[in-house]
Design brief:
- The protein is α+β, with helices and mostly antiparallel strands.
- The protein folds into 2 domains: 98 residues, Phage gp6-like head-tail connector protein (Hypothetical protein yqbg, Orthogonal Bundle); 81 residues, no CATH class.
- 23% of the residues lie in helices and 25% in strands.
- Strand 4 and strand 5 form a beta hairpin.
- 30% of the residues are buried.
Length: 195
């Protein structure tokens, strides 16, 4: 398996600038760009392939590539909450082909989303000189809108932004300025373990 590639970003953010300004108790516009950057940093810390949650927050499209078909009839996707998936491959002539959706099932287990190939599907030959001969393109996330993201995660983002805005140094005397404990506690139930 190659590293997953995001092919389209989310169309929204889990929290708005107005919500973040309210959490940080900011009622002026001079620091809007700074706060937007902090929102993006908090989302980046939690979301996607490199995020600590191991999942996508707002719907986004990804591609997972393999050099050949799996030895079993399953491909494990790197994220849970997958709402759509399409399997493609490059045939012996290096032409892209799409596997019929009737031959593919999307399943959720305790570790996330799995693509299962029907017993009726005979794995066709894949072009030999490609490292990405089999590809799964999929949409992962809680939904398309900010309100689809669990409130606990949205609150954690707001806590992080407010904390960073009000504590802009790496540490202050007597305490470290990391992610606030409340935010860590809020996101803990949503972390995927053993990905």
């Amino acid at each position: 398996m190659l590293r997953p590639i995001r092919i389209s970003a989310p169309g929204a953010k889990p929290v708005s600038l107005l919500e973040a300004k309210g959490a940080a108790k900011v009622d002026f516009g001079d620091d809007d760009a700074l706060i937007e950057g902090m929102i993006d940093a908090a989302i980046s810390h939690l979301d996607g392939w490199s995020g600590v949650l191991g999942r996508c927050l707002i719907n986004q499209d990804w591609r997972l590539s393999h050099c050949d078909w799996p030895s079993c009839r399953f491909i494990r996707l790197p994220f849970p909450d997958v709402s759509a998936a399409t399997v493609k491959y490059f045939d012996e002539d290096n032409a892209e082909q799409t596997v019929s959706s009737s031959l593919v099932t999307r399943l959720e287990d305790e570790r996330g989303t799995v693509i299962r190939f029907s017993d009726d599907f005979a794995f066709p030959s894949v072009f030999d000189d490609r490292g990405d001969g089999v590809q799964v393109e999929f949409t992962a996330g809680y939904g398309a809108a900010a309100t689809d993201v669990p409130r606990a995660i949205r609150t954690a983002i707001l806590l992080m932004v407010a904390h960073w805005y009000n504590n802009r140094e790496a540490s202050t005397e007597g305490q470290r300025s990391e992610i606030p404990f409340g935010a860590s506690a809020l996101i803990a139930p949503f972390r995927r373990v053993g990905v």
